[in-house]
Amino acid sequence: MIRIQLINRFPIRTFPLFLLISFILYCSPVTIHADNGYRKLINCDLHDEACVHRVDDTDIILEVKPRPVRAMKDLVFTVTLSGNSESPKSPPYIDLNMPGMDMGPNRVKMNPVGENVYEGKGVIVKCPSGHRVWRATVTVPDLGKAEFIFDVIY
Fold this sequence. Notes:
The chain is α+β, with helices and mostly antiparallel strands. Helices cover 18% and strands 36% of the residues. It has a single domain (32-151), classed as Immunoglobulin-like (Sandwich), CATH 2.60.40.1930. The strands form two sheets. It has a five-stranded antiparallel sheet with strand order 1-2-3-7-6, with no helix packed on it. A four-stranded antiparallel sheet has the order 5-4-8-9, with no helix packed on it. The longest helix is centred in the N-terminal third of the chain and has 12 residues, at 15-26. It starts with a helix and ends with a strand. Residues 22-34 have low confidence and may be disordered.
């Protein structure tokens, strides 16, 4: 008898309303900007200029065009190595991911376009959660890695 009362109390026709309210709460501005904890990790503003990280005696310079950097658009990634290092034996590569969230593999393969200058094309996907803080890990063989953490426009 209790079971019948509960079913009558919450009829099935209210279920779509429950789904709608859940969706609104999930996509609310509070949730969309819940990555504020990761926003403090941002160390690069690729919207305005190239970013630089030093590894040993080499500057690893990352530039992304077109600007501003937007998700779901074809982007050209340029890595320039500047300093006292020799050219790497193989080209650098970039792994794109989000801090604190596994987005699956997303690697940008780089090709040489000049002396110590490499280019590759890639796409930053739009995270269903609405989070916009992304990380580009540039790996230079025989040298090391540099992490560029930046904001993406959706």
